[in-house]
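**User:** My hope is that you can spare some time for a protein that puzzles me. As I understand it, each token names a local backbone shape. I would be glad if you read both lines and explained how they fit together. The protein I mean follows directly.
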Amino acid sequence: MTFTQAIILGAIQGVTEFLPISSSAHLILVPWLLNWPDQGLTFDVVVHAATLVAILSFFWRDWLKIIKETLQPSLKFKTQASLTGRRMLLLISIGTIPAAISGFWLQELVSTNLRHPVVVSIMLFAVALLLWLAEKKASLNKSLENLSVLDVLLIGIAQAVALVPGTSRSGITITFGLFRGMTREVSARFSFLLATPIILGAFLYKIYGIKSLDIPDGQAMAMAVSFSTALIVGYLTIKYFIRFLKEKTLYVFIYYRILLSVVILLVIYSGEFQP
């Protein structure tokens, strides 16, 4: 992997992990279109570590608040703060269960059979339609404090579908957040909080899957560049995406997903690239 490839792939991971356009789709498509070799499991571990650090760096106050309120002593009475923290931790835990189960049982099946440009194209288009429908039908009036167990369970089930390349974890969870009446900003914030344990789990799973982080000779610096790029770009993407959603709709991402889906199919149909 060259330094140019390291920067490009790190930036792609940082941007697409958090925008509703699918990181797996872009990390499959870019090497495919540019005829780059597969970067291997060690690269996956490195960029997952970077996005984990990015999301924790941005939401550390939220997680610290949740943990502090959860651990707050309440032997004689339960304070509102402790109830709030414990309830949010419980909701995030419930929402994490479907993706954790599907990831454990289906990861190998998906990696072997579904990492295909046609699958990516189909899922890009399908989730774009769902996101469009959510934008049309959403009531946009529910805050984090008003979330129910049913809300987070449905969003959690949606997150499990994100295992399929082209879906987008943030895309599908924000979509179902909108369906459940959440505002765009609240949907995104909860999506990222819900993603944190899953990204951590994916990172640990990949670490477990390899006996050691065997970095090829001369590739240590390139890996460091990918990590740094994914971390910085990921943090900035979260920051400006949430700010964007305070005033804007998600239509630009819907149009992008549809356009990319069509382009992929046209490229495959043209015979210029063999999937």
